[in-house]
Design brief:
The chain contains two helices and four strands; from the N terminus they run βαββαβ. It is of the alpha+beta class and about 90 residues long. The chain has a single domain, classed as 2-Layer Sandwich (Alpha-Beta Plaits), CATH 3.30.70.1140. A four-stranded antiparallel β-sheet has the order 2-3-1-4, with helices on one face. A hairpin with a 4-residue loop joins strand 2 (about 35) and strand 3.
């Protein structure tokens, strides 16, 4: 039996948020909420190692974090990125 986790994906500024939303939806079956100007995606999902690998497999993903919720109910975004959000990424 798979249990639910609230998963948060952080990306670099300037990442195509529509593509990221669609990728998370297609990977997990759940549409994420989007925060922080399109750099923070949050969804409650049944998590597997394969899903985790698929979400983290891009250079523009800076961090994946989350919490065990046990059920489909979640409180929303609860983590801050570990990197300084005022940092400017070189092109």
């Amino acid at each position: 039996m798979l249990t639910f986790y609230m998963v948060e994906v952080f990306t670099k500024p300037g990442t195509n948020s529509e593509w990221c939303k669609d990728h998370i939806w297609n990977t997990t079956g759940f549409v994420p909420a989007i925060y922080d100007e399109g750099t923070h995606y949050v969804t409650n999902m049944r998590l597997t190692l394969e899903i985790l690998k698929t979400l983290d497999n891009f250079d523009f993903v800076t961090e994946v974090t989350g919490d065990y919720t046990g059920t489909l109910t979640a409180l929303g975004a609860s983590h801050e990125p570990k990197v300084n959000r005022h940092w400017t990424y070189p092109n």
